[in-house]
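Hi V.,

You were right to ask for the full record rather than a summary. Here it is.
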Amino acid sequence: MKTVQDYIRTIVDFPHEGIMFRDVTTLFADPRGFRMAIDQMLHPYAGLEIDKVVGLEARGFILGGAIAHQLSVGFVPIRKKGKLPGRTISQDYSLEYGEAIVEIHDDAIQPGEKVLVVDDLLATGGTAEAGIKLIERLGGEIVSCAFIIDLPKLGGRAKLEALGMEVNALCAFDGL
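Predicted structure:
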């Protein structure tokens, strides 16, 4: 029987030499694989109170929208700077080379709302940490962070757990 990991394609030396890119588009394209991933991502949260699902740009939108639909709750995107039309708050974070900024609408999360953070891949944890900071600045209470893939060698899980976050991932890959 296939696992979620079996649907994920690895592309060698993308986007840079030495990187093993874990491509979830092959998972998303397969109806059984995609349903399996969404069902497994939802499983730890059965019976928990969740008010909003926040998806991190861009593949987190695909997963987050499907998960929000299954939970019958609202979906909130965290986007790269300049992509949201309304009033936003922003958070900068470090990338491998340089910095980036993400934003959320300033009225997207209400104080006390229970939030599930979703993305496809946890590497260094920089984007997720920036998203967590934005949600917390709006008064949201993060229930958990859910990913398809964890890259343990890059330390993202440890970073998020050090912030007091619960982290769930469907599979892990060695290396970069």
